[in-house]
Amino acid sequence: MLKLTDNYLDQKDEFAKQNIVVPQYNQAKVTSQTKEEPVWVHFGGGNLFRCFHAKIAQDLLNQGKLVSGIVVAETYDDEVIDKIYHAYQNRMLSVVMKSNGTLEKELLASVGESLYFNQANEAGWNRLTEIFTKPSLQLATFSITEKGYALTDVNGNLTAAAKEDIANGPESPKTNMGAVAHLLYARYKAGKQPIAMVSTDNFSQNGLKLETEVLRIAQGWAKAGAVEAGFIDYLKDPNQVSFPWSMIDRITPNPAQTVADQLKMSGFADTEIVHTAKHTNIAPFGNTEQIHYLVIEDSFPNGRPPLEKAGVILTDRETVNDADQMKVTACLNPLHTALAILGNLLGYTSIASELSDQDLLDLIKNLGYGEDLPVVKDPKIINPKKFIDELINLRLPNKNIPDTPQRIASDTSQKIPVRYGVTIQHYVDDSDLNPEDLEFIPLVLASWCRYLMGIDDNGEAFEQSPDPLLDNLKAYVEDIKLGNSNIDVHEKLQPILSNKSIFGNNLYDIGLGTKVENYFKQLIADKGAIRKTIHDTVQTKSYQF
Fold it and tell me: What is the pTM of this model?
């Protein structure tokens, strides 16, 4: 059986027999160069990084355009480093799942170093702090999910951890943003070296979010006299520290057992999927789709690798924002989240299978073409309508991609402000549009409230996906019984639908609260009411497109 850690330079033929493409560089040399002159740090060692960022670096290393590997700093789960990175010499097998059922396999060795970055892990903490003092360091990228940036609670107040980080100063913060501010302070003290801090997380204006939250911590320190005022000037000067915006798009599900089985049958040994104590699902391989986009604002004060040579689109901030708004707030993510919510309620375990459901297909078409597309600004570098066409006709129906509504439903409360709130705001701001005319966004929001009950369309309990606000929110609706026509829906939903931090608006102020309530009443009428409501709505309220 061929192993991930086998010598790919000496055993090229064995890898070729299994159709595994191998690196065209010497990993040992890359590792040595990374130690001496690190160029690129990445926060978050999960599946998206392993299938996308690591492949970008591999392409550049193969071309000789990059000589140092990526330093992976995992901020959440130490088992990821111990059981996946270190156990396999920082290698991974990239598996691209094509719609024709074939697998495109490549051994990636572009990670030059990996560590668990948490103040509880002294060795990793000190090592990354040292790396951030190196003049050679040009960029740090992030894929830590929306909640990795959070310093405030549902009411917009600082969390206890954020308050503690600000009070205790820059030595050993506990939040991600505090830890990043600590690293930048170390870089500031080491000579004010420039760097680009590039969020590639999947939400709008991600660079602004990273900048805002790092400054929130740093300014708290400055106010308390824990850091110099000059440190704030350093963070605010884009010629010293930039926070480029980006748009990223690649559907990357958790490693699938079906893929593991195919690899094992082909003679590849390292296929065990690790399920960590912190509920991370990760494996020596990563499975992902073929179609992908990464658009980054070209703002790198310390220089950068030629990322465009590996397919990254470098452009200005406005174009990045237009592309991101197109994708995150309109043409992909809202459709994905709708399928996640309704897939759970209707008993689906595959996103691809949902595309064979005519009611759900019609719903996401109305959502995308009917309500989202009219307010999208064309970014020019990607055509919005063709993007939705590609998504609905090629990407989501790909049965070779083992993506699940359960995975996509994670952290929905954190996603709604961007995936639906932004489009709603367009309807509020545009004098030619009226948010009260929306039908399918309110239906999805009502379905999410129905999801919070934890009862599917057959009246059976289901396991809800992790969400930092789940316990708080489900308390409002968990005692609602299907078929109870006497329930005061307004009393139950008002605390949720009026929450501006979730929707961007008090939905009652803009004429949507009552509409969401009315859909919710239909959804709780009885068993089967979810299916009936979706079917009736797409039959009677579909747009012409």
Answer: 0.83
